[in-house]
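Supplementary Methods. Inverse-folding protocol.

Structures were first reduced to a discrete structure-token string of length 303. This string, shown here, constituted the complete conditioning input.
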């Protein structure tokens, strides 16, 4: 799964910010993003054992295209799919990364068992990729805030949808858990990417990234001890060409941030639910199965 930035992906930068709820996960490029407040690459999402391969494939692609940048620090992040996938087999290749990069573009985003979300489990149902967006109004105009998650965390009993404790009402006798009792308290992980076309600078992007925790909490995520919960937000509202010594930037006034903050939290929450709604039952290694969330039952419980 490759999350592209809008505009000229490789030849410019965007302001960004990172927030970490629980650091038992991996995202490359964090020191640079923290230091500079800038993002200069697509964001690759994969499984735990292939973060390095994804990162290296992105660097190689840049070098082979001879782009005019002195260095590249691509962002690659992971959640662990080893319960369903034989991650030690290293099934992904450099060709898969390049294919994902080339297929990235505008339009609807595939959700559920796709890309990096293929082998993921969320709230003891089949999880994966989910996305959502909001259009907000500020005194400076209309802006879009979008979110994409790779959801691989959580206990069944904690799942909430629109405030309803849905997970408590769908026991393992109705939909079996992919975990046995000894495994059930493991934390899992989630990666969330928030993007906006509002003109923000780095500290404002960091504020948006932190609000992913609000959406996660609404859906029933707590950042368990062994969980890896890392969030990045970026803005395409300023064009920062590489190599230019002076940039002219615009920035939304801080007192106009509240609509974007609400939208970020809402979009992350809905992205998690969308991942659950789109994911389909999957059988994996050692006879393990992660079952899809029963949508008809959920509709009755929420309605």
């Amino acid at each position: 799964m490759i999350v592209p930035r809008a505009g000229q992906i490789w030849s410019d930068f965007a302001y960004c910010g990172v927030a970490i709820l629980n650091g038992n996960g991996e995202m490359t490029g964090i020191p640079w993003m923290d230091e500079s407040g800038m993002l200069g690459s697509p964001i690759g999402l994969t499984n735990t054992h292939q973060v390095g391969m994804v990162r290296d494939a992105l660097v190689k692609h840049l070098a082979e295209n001879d782009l005019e940048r002195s260095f590249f620090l691509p962002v690659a992040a992971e959640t662990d799919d080893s319960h369903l996938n034989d991650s030690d087999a290293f099934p992904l290749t450099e060709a898969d990364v390049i294919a994902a990069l080339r297929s990235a573009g505008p339009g609807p985003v595939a959700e559920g068992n796709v890309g990096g979300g293929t082998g993921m489990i969320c709230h003891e149902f089949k999880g994966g990729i989910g996305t959502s967006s909001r259009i907000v109004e500020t005194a400076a105009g209309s802006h879009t805030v979008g979110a994409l998650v790779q959801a691989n965390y959580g206990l069944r009993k904690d799942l909430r949808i629109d405030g309803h404790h849905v997970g408590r009402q769908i026991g393992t006798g109705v939909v079996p858990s992919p975990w046995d009792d000894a495994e059930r308290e493991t934390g899992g992980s989630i990666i969330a990417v928030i993007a906006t076309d509002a003109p923000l600078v780095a500290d404002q992007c960091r504020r948006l990234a932190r609000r992913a925790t609000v959406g996660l909490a609404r859906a029933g995520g707590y950042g368990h001890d062994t969980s890896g919960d890392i969030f990045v937000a970026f803005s395409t509202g300023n064009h920062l060409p590489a190599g230019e010594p002076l940039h002219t930037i615009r920035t939304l006034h801080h007192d106009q941030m509240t609509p974007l903050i609400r939208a970020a939290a809402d979009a992350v929450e809905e992205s998690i639910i969308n991942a659950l709604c789109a994911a389909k039952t999957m059988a994996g290694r050692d006879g393990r199965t992660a079952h899809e969330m029963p949508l008809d039952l959920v509709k009755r419980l929420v309605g």
